[in-house]
Amino acid sequence: MQDKDVIDRISALTHASLAENMPFRLFRRASIRRRAEQGHNIGFDAPVPFFPSIPDAEAWRDVTFLVHDPNYIGHYFHFIEIFLALHAFHRTYLPDAAVGRIVFTSRNWTNPAQNNIQQELLSAIYPNAEVMTPADMTDVDLTNVVLIDRTLAMTRINKFLEPVLPIAGAWTGGLADVLFRHVAALPKPPPAPGENRRALYVKRKPPRCLSDPLEAELLRALKEGGIQVDVVDYAELPWHEQVRRTAGYDLLVGVHGNGMTNLLWLPPHGAVLEIFPAGAHHYDYQILAELKGHAYFGVEGRPDGFVFREHSRHGDAFGHGADNNKEIAEISWSAVARFIDAAHGQ
Question: What's CA 264's distance to the chain center, in Å?
Fold first, then answer.
């Protein structure tokens, strides 16, 4: 049975009392089986015809999370999505259950080029959980299983976290606090009246980046607006240093991309300016900003390109693909001015 067939079967047998749009399914028992046709990944089955509702599962005192995301799990932002959703589900619905195992069905669940961020996040929040991956897994039977699967999320805007926002928002700030303590980060207090705000500008390599003249002009405009700007290349920093560095600033500014995931490590009063190429607009980092309660501004790379409406998402994201992975040479300066005003509490 191929992975898609498994997912289709699980979806068809889902218990109706579990929120249909969320990417979770509950099983009293499930099994992991290696199959030759799946290469380095693994298959899984949940053949027992008992699919408990959340109230049925509240008596569970131990739980296994089964993470199925074969295409995106090794990517920093997309792993964070799964991680936030997993943690929010656990804390909201099964707070008395210990997480004994976290099982990944895809071998590429971690990315060594990202300083093994995934492993460090899991060890910080679930230090007693056994992490199982296809690299070292044999056939195994599981009980009290929560499946989390990207393909099960039903959204209005084709973004995985969107249906999880009602529960994830309650736990993201506390999760960040735990990670601050884990890496010995000291979040910056809110600036005093008259004190300059501090911003990190996220440096990106071509092709999706600001042109050199626009980058210089933007940094100058921020400084003239009373904002102290420092430049960071997150790709050159280990993850714990990314967290510590970001926690010391009020603002994060950058072009849409993986580095903007670090907005999660801004202090609670933080604000975000995200810049998109012309013809592109995505909600990924807007959603993360909402989960942390940060003010957020999204700007498309054209003179009239202020595309964000605060805490609203209208229509699907657009502009993925090579055609929009390009240098940005223009920007809406009125939008930048609005961001500066918001940064100063105006």
Answer: 9
Residue 98: phi and psi, rounded to 5, are: -80, 140
CA dihedral 202, 205, 206, 207 (to 10 degrees): -60
Instruction: Give the angle subtended at the CA of 240 by the CAs of 176 and 161, to the nearest 5°.
Output: 40
| DSSP calls for 37-85 | GGTTS-EEE--SS----HHHHTT-SEEEEEEE-TTTTTSHHHHHHHHHH
* Whether residue 207 has a cis bond before it, omega within 30° of 0: yes
What is the rounded (10 degree) CA torsion for 335, 338, 340, 344? -170
pTM above 0.85, yes or no: yes
- What residues does 102 pair with on adjacent strands? 65, 131
For the cut 80, the answer to whether the pLDDT of residue 7 exceeds it is no
How far is Cα 61 from Cα 332, in angstroms, rounded to an integer?
A: 53
pLDDT value of residue 42: 61
Which residue in this structure is represented by tokens 């015809």? Answer: 49
Contact present, 297 and 337 (Cβ < 8 Å): no
With tokens 């589900």, the residue in question is: 89
Measured CA to CA in angstroms, residue 98 lies from 12, 31, 127, 155 at distances of: 28, 20, 11, 29
Across 212-221, average pLDDT: 98
209 contacts: CB under 8 Å, gap ≥ 6: 203, 215, 255, 327, 328
CA distances from 283 to 257, 261, 274, 297, 340 (A): 11, 12, 10, 11, 21
The residues, ordered by sequence, that sit 6+ positions from 51 with a Cβ below 8 Å of its Cβ are 13, 14, 15, 25, 26, 27, 28
Distance from C-alpha of 269 to C-alpha of 202, rounded to nearest angstrom: 19
Give residue 243's identity as a one-letter amino acid code: V
| Token duo for residue 292 | 């942390």
Written in H, E and C, the secondary structure of 213-268 is HHHHHHHHHHHHCCEEEEEECHHHCCHHHHHHHHHCCCEEEEECCHHHHHHHHCCC
What residues does 130 pair with on adjacent strands?
101
CB 265 within 8 A of CB 121: no
